[in-house]
Amino acid sequence: MTATSPPRRGRGRPGNDQAAVLRAAVDLFNRKGYDATSIGDLAKELGVTKPAIYHHFDSKEDLLRLALDDALDELTTVVSNASAGSGTAYARLRDVIHRSVEVLVAHQPSVTLLLRIRGNTAVEQGALERRRWLDDRLAELVRDAVADGALRDDVPPDLVSRLLFGMVNSLVEWYRPEGTYDAASVADALVAIAFDGLARGQA
What we know:
This protein is mainly alpha-helical. The protein has helices spanning 18-32, 39-46, 50-54, 60-84, 89-106, 108-114, 122-147, 157-169, 171-174, 183-198. Helix 1 (18-32) packs across helix 2 (39-46), helix 5 (89-106) packs antiparallel against helix 7 and helix 5 (89-106) packs parallel to helix 8 (157-169). Keywords: DNA-binding, Transcription, Transcription regulation. InterPro entries: DNA-bd_HTH_TetR-type_CS (IPR023772), Homeodomain-like_sf (IPR009057), HTH-type_TetR-like_transc_reg (IPR050109), HTH_TetR (IPR001647), KstR2_TetR_C (IPR041490), Tet_transcr_reg_TetR-rel_C_sf (IPR036271).
């Protein structure tokens, strides 16, 4: 978990402020792949020159770092608060999964990008390390819930953690904000299905 420096500030051209450039970059990275996308491609997408991009960001890697931070920062806060919070481990675990769905929906383009990286750069490796930290904290909550007798004890906690996050992350493949189900409904359903299957005494 390393501190990151903020990008350079600047007004830029109307309609192409810092946030707009980052959104366009994330969309392009998701469509073409990070490695296959250049600053020139992004400039063409936005209808600006490359210097207009560099007015806001130092490099393509700077854009990637900020996009991955957008995907990870709020989820890191959610998991950290649950790890240090009060209440039963079971209740905190359910809340983490519910909130994780809400975070993914709110940051879906950036989370999609996060799930596609492979550790080819230092920025990607740092993001993957943060994902491992999240998995470890979730597994600790699972262990605590098992120790409290709230969860079945025949499935390894590390595997439970990966399966739970896997269910949440699968939303990037099909969830659309304009679709039939809102984020709260999906979160409620996912938590109900996951924990009805995990609760002690269930088949």
